[in-house]
Design a protein that fits this description.
The chain is built from two helices and no strands. The protein is an all-alpha fold. The chain has one domain. α1 runs antiparallel to α2. The longest helix is centred in the first third of the chain and has 33 residues.
Length: about 80
C-alpha cells in the first residue's frame, strides 16, 4: 500500500512536470522565433538547452515533488 501511494504520487508529479515543461518549451520556442532577429546564432543552442531543461529537468523535479507529497500523505 505504501509503495503504491508513493509510486502514484511520483507518477502524477512526473506527468504534471511534463505538462508544465511542454508549456514552458512552447513559450520559449515562440519567444525565440519572435526574437530571432535579435540573436540569430543563439537560436539553435538556446533551443537545445531549453529543451533539455523543460523536457528532462522539470519532469524530474515534478516527480520528486510528487514523491515528497506522497510521503506527506503517509504521515
Amino acid at each position: 500500500m505504501r509503495a503504491t501511494i508513493l509510486g502514484w504520487s511520483a507518477l502524477s508529479g512526473l506527468v504534471l512536470g511534463l505538462m508544465a515543461g511542454l508549456t514552458a518549451f512552447a513559450v520559449l520556442v515562440l519567444g525565440g522565433e519572435l526574437a530571432a532577429a535579435v540573436m540569430p546564432r543563439m537560436g539553435t543552442r538556446a533551443r537545445v538547452i531549453a529543451a533539455f531543461i523543460t523536457l528532462v529537468v522539470v519532469p524530474i523535479v515534478g516527480a520528486t515533488l510528487g514523491w515528497l507529497e506522497g510521503r506527506l500523505k503517509l504521515q
